[in-house]
Amino acid sequence: MNIRGARLKATAAASDLHRKLNLRSEIREGLRPIDVYKSIIDLDVPLLFRPLEGVLGVYLSSPEKGILISSSDALNPARQRYTAAHELGHLCMGHGNSVDDAHNINDQESLQRAETAPTDVPIFEAEAEMFASEFLMPKALIVSTCKKMGLNKAGIMNPKNVYQLALRLGTSYQATCYALRSNELVSFQALNRLTQFTPKQIKQECIDEGTSIEHPHSDVILLDKTDHGRQLLLKPGDHVIMSLPEHTSGGFQWTVPDISPLVHWLDDKRSGASPEGVFGSPVLRHLTFTGESKVDLLLTECRSWGDREYINQFGINVDFRGREEGLPRVAREAL
Ligand SMILES: [Zn+2]
What is the rounded CA–CA span in Å between residue 238 and residue 276? Predict the structure, then answer.
């Protein structure tokens, strides 16, 4: 199989679809994951989530086009999105009906090996896998998101940073590692090192020593002021930790909106208090929360007295609803 030819075809098809669906400006902005479900619906292709056993996704090309994705526990939201992007790949590249199990999907590792050695992966499955990666993680989106995060070439070789990048892209850690390699942003050696780590090992580094996360599958996303305006696709119970500079010496502090039960505040503390006599240097305020629904959060940094005029704002949109079931939420919300 000509893997390089398959990659070129898949990359061109993903790029054409980004252009057709006017996604290029948001890709350059680097503030949100690609909405694969909305993309499928915008193409007027029916999309449904059902608890399939042993099958991750199905693409029907005839008699009517349609995509079916498993809603079983085996798929976390990132894997559901990747599976949908794989089936969208079959659609965009004119393939026939396809029933995909775990052997066909998220098999990026075998594709990496196939670049240097023969493989038994059918060409249309390789193309769909490459399309999924290119559609959800085009190089321009990886680069724009890394820029926002202040990551350079050395920074993306650090597993903790790749884990944080994956959470911003709404993709799995493993798939993100392979996308970094296929876009030639890291070397083979760096890829091999990155894939030796598991998200479980990495996320423990993202929280304070001694702190434990309630659910072992919960993720921990670390945000700072550069994430203002970001949209996140998370799961119920994932932890969001925002670290924002606070100008306490000037009498300013971040106001935490009381929007329970949409948001559960878990922790609120400050670090890096200025040494005596250093006036005006900000401290960092660390706010941790979790949730189960979709929430627009807007924090303002203002004085607790007087006119309450703010000097800074920090807004994010977090969707904690996780795995899809039945009709996609974006279709239900449009009804
Ligand atoms: Zn397939």
Answer: 37
